[in-house]
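Lab meeting tomorrow. Look over both lines:
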Amino acid sequence: MEKLSKQKLILVGLTLFSMFFGAGNLIFPPYLGALAGTSTWTAMTGFAVTAIGFPVLGVVAVARSGGLARLAGRVHPKFAFIFTLLIYLSIGPCLAIPRTASTSFEMAVVPFLKEGSSGAFIQFLYSAFFFAAAFAVSLKPDRLTDRLGKILTPCLLALIVVIFAGCMVHPAGSYGTPEKAYGSNPFVKGFLEGYLTMDTIAALNFGIIISLNVQAMGVKQEASVVRETIKAGFIAGGVLLLVYSALAHVGAVTGGTLGLGENGAQTLNQAVRFLYGNVGLVMLAAVFFIACLNTCIGLISCCSRYFSTIIPRVGYSAWAFLFAMVSLVVSNIGLNKILEVSVPVLNAIYPVAIVLILLSFAFRDGRRWKAVYVCSIGFTGTASVLLALEQAGFVFLNAGLSRLPLYNVGLGWMGPAFAGIAAGALAGIGGKRYGQEGSR
């Protein structure tokens, strides 16, 4: 039976971690800690479910089912195409890829700009350099383990350890009082904040790139590739848990004493200024640049590979160049604007991804339980889209949606999801009995 050596498996796991750990992964845990204060660890538990647990399960689900298209195809082929397309656009040039450049610019460049500098022009130049570097590395997706796992990721982890160690040895203060949302229901608030990392929907696509890297290391049998990909997913999840916990602690001790910034990037900025002064700013700039570049490379690679399969006339390299150029334009909108737009979009897509992943474990036989997939995804998708529209400003929807169970805590889609599973299960059981009676 083919398998990777421990060293190679760890390298692949670190590669997957580096693809996950980008802009949102850096800024959301510390901001969660700053806002949650003494409720940080309860909130982190909820955050870990959606930002670590579901992404790892997503890697496993896609690896076992043979790809996202096959998994989503259990609902319907047209749904598989539309859902996959929406996911790739979300983690691609519309949201996630541009966010890597805008976040790293805010942390790696803005703190060093002089007053009166043309920030917009400098951001454009930085974005051009950033996406040129990402494009160059992404041209060989099967070499990502060599370039990310061996070089960039160890540097990134070392820098994060230095920041965390500084907070342990010389903390800015103690955990503060939780903000309103975290004071009333910290677990649910953390659960919802985990959406913003985009890792669950990214996990549905990263599996294919990791599989390529496993194959490039000499594992050729399909079953062995799936098994090693799953192992890499669990390694990546373990590293994510350690890093998220460290960053949440940094944010909690910083926010409780130095005050709250507008986002997690500013929270980390306050922390390193307090700990290391200007040297800390350089250190943080390196952390953000490496983390965001890693994720950008991974996203360009998986998106380009997907679109080159549905429109093969436009090759992989051309798609990679196109995504880099479009992301260059979108990234110059600014970090806060991108975050503002991403929230309702993710609230519409994320619940569907979560339900699809869980169904792959609870109802593995897609043919037998097709009704479960159709009903649950249909109900969940309808509810999540309407809830996202309400959040985007369509307030007339409030009268009907507010009656949904768990609506007040931001989980209004769960009731329709369970109702869809129940309806589909009953239909599946009834159909099976009818088929058995008809065959007698």
About this structure: The CA atoms of residues 17 and 236 lie 5 Å apart. The chain has 19 helices and no strands.
